[in-house]
């Protein structure tokens, strides 16, 4: 289990950056790696808890055996004081058995305690490595999202200057130029028509002047 976690840590450290250049979705892969690490930690926690329970069980049995040794010792002394050597002998024999059991349990307890300490240390290392990888994962996810955003923006910007868009702008520009030309033509025609009307108005004004002069001549008012 711990070897597998070490392998996972190596994969995360050496391959996550490379995934950014592959077809795999790095964000999904990062999350998957973290889920596998979390599963490894839960498995390790269960193993440590089981080992600690075994350690406590051995400790309890060891303490019980020691108490029996002390109890048989006291009982032997009581029997001697009572003058019952046979009973004292039986107590001492049972004391010897419990003493041997206590020695065996002490060895097992010490070994279990050492194993528990070792497993606790490894579990702490796994959790530290997990948090380190989690920080790295968050950084890589941010980089991946940033790269996706930049790619999307770049593609959008490249589309803005594409041939189809450019041709569309050129068509609109031609239409605007056409509208402007039509407006200028209509202004020229209006100016031309106004000049013609002015000339006719002037001509009509001259006719009135002539008539006035003729009228004055007839009336002898010149």
UniProtKB/TrEMBL annotation:
Pfam families linked: PspA_IM30
Annotated keywords: Coiled coil
Ranges annotated as spanning the membrane: none
InterPro entries: PspA_VIPP1
Region (Disordered): 141-203
Stretches of the chain forming a coiled coil according to its record: 27-75
Compositionally skewed regions (Basic and acidic residues) per UniProt: 163-177, 187-203
Family of the protein in this entry: Belongs to the PspA/Vipp/IM30 family.
Protein name as annotated: PspA/IM30 family protein
Annotated source species: Metabacillus fastidiosus
